[in-house]
Amino acid sequence: MSGINVYAHYTSEEDYSDLDYSGACERLASAIACKTIDQGDGTDSAPFERLHALVLSSYPHIMAASSFEEVGRNLLITCPGTEPSLPCVLLLAHQDVVPVVPGTEKDWLHDAFAGELDETFIWGRGALDIKDMLMGELEALEYLLARGERPRRTVILAFGADEETSSTGATELAGLIKERGVRADWLLDEGTTTIINGAMWGAAGHVLTDVCISQKGYLDLRLDAHGEGGHSSNPFGGTSLEHLCVAIARIAESRPTPKLTPIVEDTFRTLAPYITEEPLHTLVQDVHGNAEKIAALAATRRDLYPFVVTTMAVDMLQGGSAAPNVMPGDASATINFRLLPGTTADDVLAWVERAAQGTGVTATLVHTTPAGRMDSTDGPGYAEVAEALGHYYGNVDVVPSFVCGGTDAIRYEAVCDSILRVIPFRPTPEEEATGVHGVNERISRRTYAQGIRVLVRLLERTIL
Ligand SMILES: [Zn+2]
Question: Which pLDDT value is given to residue 436?
């Protein structure tokens, strides 16, 4: 936890004083009360339908101006601009939330799905992930339309219903947008929410927040070793487990060297004037020229490691024998890799197969989502998003980065040139640490209002 007092960085909180912030908080609480959990075929649709009804009834100006489509449980709201030739803007969020972790129910101070709010907080599952963004985007657009604005650009709000599980909704919505021949200049989706201490990047005393312009890929590989079993008095040639362990060791030893992607080069370049720590300070005077050295150094630090490495985590082992004097039959291991942008599943498979050669162990791809395209800080929307964040979070520098987990946004690459993953809300580190996917998820009224201001300013400067 960074321990940064985020409120000390809030600025211009007096903006848009005619916006109905307390109504917005109540609407967010009502959205939280819809228990929108995706469970595949067994999903209860009723809470999603209640959320749709809430959206329909809460934003009269948007609804008067827009088409409202339910695509299965997913939502697509299109608010046409007055200049249809301009590329549109896409605002994403997901409707679904994760369940309460079994056994933690009693730790919640307020029922996770009661939609309660008090003087300070709006409580419940989804307050930070990510109904704040879903409802906040609607609040911002509604405010502008209610003020009498007529946006030149078309705004599309696309709310998938299964981001936490399979992301099929996002795939479907993006497919529909593509089918219609619509292109977006840029899109906003979930990503970073934190203000972090620049010490992580060697810039102590500086605080920053990032706009993520890519995301890491995901890959599960299974390694299989065949074993005949039998008495362990003559393990000629080694057991299946032994072969498996040798293969894993060779794979781990032959890891690719750490690498600076163009995005992380950009992060260091942006921060260079503030990096005081040696040897980084000297190295970042020429980031590109020193890329290998910087990557090697970053890989020795826990916080930076995932940003410069395609990580591998050996998470599952199966097939040990039940007795010490009996050799195991077939054995397998599953390794989870997180791919740096620019690295593919095929690259990893080739590395693994090369390393495991001669061990008799085979590798099979179980599941993968590719890494995101690497977008540019010069791309559409980036400067405007950075400006809006900078306007409301003072003394905070905005740097480019990528998301180490996955989001729905990657499904939209074919319809959007610039995918910006950043959440406009900046909750306190305490809220963030326990709330997201944990217990007592909540957002303060103050945090919610400030994020809505970011969205209003962003839209004011891009769609009008
Ligand atoms: Zn989320």
Answer: 86
